[in-house]
């Protein structure tokens, strides 16, 4: 079964908002994660950290959010656990808004208000669970500073209710740091795009 790599660049705009650019590429199970030290901007690649993430995706019964390119999820695990709302902001670009995880599983009111025009009062309910095993590789410059973090994800998605497996993907992401975002953004194509 072919898998897919998702190339994502995050440009952090603040603690609760960021812009991201995504491009998806189909790969097969034998595709090797690229050697990221072979790029001119990267002096070394640090030891990877491994994280287990679980995200529950919310939608209306008619999937109105997805039809409008909007994603709403509650993620646990990793550095960015919490509620995430992704809204289209241009070709391949989305704005991601974040809210703290909290103890409940009810969609935060601020997110309900943001999607009200799309949901039109229909309930927002859990529709899928995505489990991700992520390996993050810090990409360092000559001074040891982190230019970006590359992530290699193994993803399993399950539709809630029926328990049917929807897909298995392999994703690669460039998670860009604030201080060097412009520098790393210009280089992200050389990191991944040739491997698809």
TrEMBL record:
Protein name as annotated: CYTH domain-containing protein
Organism: Intrasporangium chromatireducens Q5-1
Residues of the CYTH domain: 18-196
CDD domains (alphabetical): CYTH-like_Pase
Species classification: Bacteria, Bacillati, Actinomycetota, Actinomycetes, Micrococcales
Gene3D superfamilies (UniProt xref): Hypothetical Protein Pfu-838710-001 (2.40.320.10)
């Amino acid at each position: 079964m072919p898998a897919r790599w998702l190339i994502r660049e995050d440009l952090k705009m603040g603690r609760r908002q960021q812009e991201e650019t995504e491009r998806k590429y189909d790969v097969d199970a034998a595709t090797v994660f690229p050697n990221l030290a072979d790029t001119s901007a990267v002096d070394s690649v640090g030891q990877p950290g491994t994280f287990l993430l679980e995200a529950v995706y919310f939608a209306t019964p008619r999937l109105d959010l997805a039809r409008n390119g909007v994603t709403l999820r509650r993620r646990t695990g990793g550095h960015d656990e919490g509620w995430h709302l992704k809204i289209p902001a241009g070709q391949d670009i989305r704005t991601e808004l974040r809210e703290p995880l909290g103890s409940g599983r009810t969609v935060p009111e601020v997110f309900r208000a943001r999607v009200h025009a799309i949901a039109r009062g229909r309930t927002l309910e859990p529709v899928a669970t995505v489990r991700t095993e992520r390996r993050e590789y810090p990409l360092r410059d000559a001074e040891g500073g982190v230019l970006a973090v590359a992530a290699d994800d193994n993803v399993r998605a399950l539709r809630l209710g029926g328990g049917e497996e929807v897909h298995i993907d392999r994703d690669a992401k460039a998670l860009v740091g604030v201080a060097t975002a412009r520098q790393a953004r210009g280089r992200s194509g050389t990191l991944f795009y040739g491997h698809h």
